[in-house]
Give the backbone structure.
Amino acid sequence: MRPGSNVLMGRNPLGTWVQGPGGGADFSHPFTVFPSSAGARVSRGLVIANIAVEPVIGKVPIGGDDKNPQPVLNLDDSLVDDLGQSWVCVLVIPNADGKLDAKPDKPQVTVVQRAFPIALTGKGGLVPLALLLRRNGHWQVFQIAMFHFRYETSQPASGPRKHFFL
Amino acid sequence: MTPPLRVSHNTLLTQNSLGSTISMSRHRGWGHPWLTEPKWMPKKKAWAAFVVAGFVNGTAPMVRTTAGDMREANGTFYGQLVDAMTGAAEIKQLAQLVAATDDTSGLPDKTVIDVPLYKAPPVSLSEWRAIGWDGSAAVPLFFQDRGVNKPKSSTIQQGEVIKIVAGNLAPPPGNRLLRACDIFLHQPRTALTSSLSTTTSGMATGMTLVTQTLSFRPAAPNEMLKIQTGTFSAFQQNSLNFTAATNAMASNYEEKNWDELLVSTVYLMSPPNTPPGSQPDSTWQAFAKHNLFWNIYWAQPAVQPFFNTDIFRSITGLVSVLGAGAGTTAVNSITASINDATQGALNLLQAQSLAGTFWTPTGGGTTSTYPATVAAPAKPTLDKAADAVAKARAKAKLISSLDPAFPYEGQKFNLSLLT
């Protein structure tokens, strides 16, 4: 056996090893979704409104904090649409003034799983981070969000509140 | 006994008299959403594009293709029309298609199916427009530096047929031909419609009553977010479907009930000395120029059932009629003010337009740049030779790629959506 293009090959007492160029992304960005058998982890990202807020899973920031490791979002196999698609999203529910509170009683910016990707009107705004497809017993991920989000909201004179992620 | 060595993804195993050789594909790096790769499909004898999955509002657009093209594209579709990534709606659609045919072992090659972009369907490219010597459009500098000559004025294109209508100029030696085909997003939406009626109130007053009624037309029932190919029109990119030249008073008017956005343009460049008017084949070289680099979001203005305008009020006042479920506005004007009314009607259409906006979230607000991509030009120095080299390098960098350098710009957000 000889190495060809893009291959390193060697021998050691354990046998022959072959090394090739790794695949995958070399662009590190916020809100990267990593699925696992336990659920999904999300790399640190911010929702920037009147204050910058890191979304939480449960009550722990998605990147973890001094007391807690990076939290895991439990994924529900049944939470899919007609095409078998599911989304990991950020849900933002501002206060009555359309602002985010520094110390809210209840988390205002959370990471959730939904069977639909987006909501730009209503009490809360929903923006997708990644599309999930169930494949051979595992979740396949298609990353959607690649930057922090600037969050803007407005309340029309009539009708539901608008939410935009810029 | 050691089991035989087998190859997996992106690996090539060859054997000759010297033994076995294992090779691997080079790591291609990060591919942005909407990255377009043109490929020749030998069985179909046509060019197709493969587009890295991009998302609009978190949803992948559909690509209309055929079962035969899917089979040729990925080689595994036959007999596996339903895989682990197939959802209930797709299974239902495929089951109906299979049931409609006598051959249940697989769909006939020509069966039309809609496939999400993340399944890497081939985007068929067929409506090529001629650019360069036997075409009409301007030739990008990138291709001029590769031997494509500027268009000769005496050629026209009628559909897929390219005719030389006048002159008998011979192509320059080494001339290359150029063809282009756009790939763009098609987003259905609700549209604005305007209908006009004119009545004369009587000889005594000499007044003419012009009534403009605005209403809404929903997207067609079977429309969906999809990928289309052909020639992308500039006004579609503008997202405003009418211009100042449109005479809104002349006739009934309907906005298009879709928005479109250019994803990329695929260019095919011929070998040197190809006869003018030739159709592209596998010997042509393919390039892609991208317009989209990031996943995007889309929204359209909220439907406002009532609109008030001072222009019309200053003429005769505004009469508003609210219909069942749809809002309409009736406008009266007098004959002497017909020009004002024309402009007013156009303003009304523009103000009420339901044209949507695509944008890229940047995290920075309404800007689409991360960070500034335009570098300040280098200041001239006393070293003229070094300046000339720097200038030559800058030019080489400019023409070496059809796409801008990373980080790519996004689509700007339309602030009026916030109101």
The first strand of chain B starts at residue 11 and ends at 16. The radius of gyration of chain B is 28 Å. Chain B touches chain A through 49 residues (CB under 8 Å). Helices of chain B lie at 67-74, 88-99, 141-144, 234-238, 310-315, 338-352, 384-400.
